[in-house]
What we know:
- The structure holds 2 protein chains of 2 kinds.
- Chain A has helices spanning 3-29, 40-50, 52-69, 77-91, 98-106, 110-143, 150-178.
- Chain A is an all-alpha fold.
- In chain A, α1 (3-29) crosses α3 and α5 runs antiparallel to α6 (110-143).
- The mean pLDDT of chain A is 86.
- By secondary structure, chain B is mainly α.
- Chain B has one domain (2-168, 238-266).
- Helix content of chain B is 69%, strand content 3%.
- Chain B is built from 9 helices and 2 strands.
- Chain B has helices spanning 16-19, 22-35, 42-59, 63-87, 104-130, 133-143, 154-184, 194-225, 244-266, and strands at residues 93-97, 100-103.
- A two-stranded antiparallel ribbon of chain B has the order 1-2.
- The longest helix of chain B is centred in the last third of the chain and has 32 residues, at 194-225.
- Classes of the chains: A mainly alpha, B mainly alpha.
- Chains A and B meet through α1, α3 and α7 of A and α4, α5, α6, α7 and α8 of B.
- Chain B: Transmembrane (T) component of an energy-coupling factor (ECF) ABC-transporter complex. Unlike classic ABC transporters this ECF transporter provides the energy necessary to transport a number of different substrates.
- Chain B: It is found in: Cell membrane.
Amino acid sequence: MNKKRLLMMIEIAIFAAIGFVLDKLSFSLWPQGGSISLVMVPIVLMAFRWGTMAGLVTGLLIGGLQVLIGGAYVLTPLQGFIDYFFAFTAVGLAGVMRGMMIAANRRGQTGKMIVAITIGTFIGGLLKYAAHTLAGIVFFAEYAGKQNVYWYSIVYNGSYMIPAIILTIIVVALLFKSAPRIANPKN
Amino acid sequence: MMDKLIFGRFIPGDSFVHRLDPRAKLIFVFAFIFIVFIANNTATYAALLIFTILIILLSRIKLYFLINGLKPILILMAFTFFLHIFFTKEGDILYHWKFITIYEEGLRQGIFISVRFLVLVFVTTVLTLTTSPISITDGMEVLLNPLKKLKLPIHELALMMSISLRFIPTLMDETDKIMKAQTARGSDLTSGPIKERIKAVVPLLVPLFVSAFKRAEDLATAMEVRGYRGGEGRTRYRQLKWHVRDTIAVLSIVVMGAVLIYLRKYS
């Protein structure tokens, strides 16, 4: 087996574990914020370090860990699938901005690199927000009948997802600014 | 701080349910999630409830653990229950007080939905309480094997999942240590202005990530020198064995499905 591929697989596995730990830690870090967590940071990092596919797999694993040991709330098959597997996996799409990020990093253009990171993280975070909102609607459609819950789901999920997206963007940007080498798998 | 976090929910034991093969349990739970939706009247929901109580008794799990797992979704349950009670306007009026009117159909639907909630949460909780995460992963790998034909890397995913599970306790300790070390240097994560707290997160993550990269590289090298070449022809340390009891468990869910379909039609 290709050594680089094996290393990538193991890094993804370990960073999925870090994501899980950071997610559980969020409560003590931000007592007033509920579940505003850093769970997206390792996913975005893997997406920028190894590419979109690696980010997607990291997200998938974190979703799986939530279901296995994190006490996930799977109340209907569809809601569980969207809330855990789809929502976390989608964050990996932050990697679509990897090309721009790497080019800027190589030329030492910190500002441009941060723009790329911000856009990528925003895309990933927004998809996660959309997924949780959709899961909420699916759940209530199945359990609450005909009530109009679109706004409720958008507002409720936004209440923690929007701060989480902003937090993730800031943390990832600071991270890449202070240690740009983490974008490069070779060292 | 980390002591408060409960990692996983598996409680080792020696009950009938504990001893079942993870594959049998996964098939069982997956089928259960689907047959729950067959239920549509009092008889079917009663049958589901009795079936779930039997499973709980067979697993010999203390009720305390089940109730504990239920706590976070209790609000959601109450919310949907009252939504049905107050907004369904069919059937006879049971209770009327000022602007509150409760209809028979609303109460019925509310109870049905709550029972559906309860049995779903109880059965999935019994699975995670009686099966170690690593055996769930092993079971999943075998069950998803047919998907390899679609070029899906099932073996690789299962391997990564096992590595993640293995490293979670280690990483929790490490995060705890780094947090304490940074606190000793005067960094404050839990109070102060939000800007300062966000800044304090970075010195926590950098050492955590750097040591994770080192760990990953060590593990990759260790696996490579031991000749790891991917899934084909690899033997297992943890063998799964299918017993008669596993067949019984799978058959019981099929029978339950048939009973539900019968009760749905003829009662």
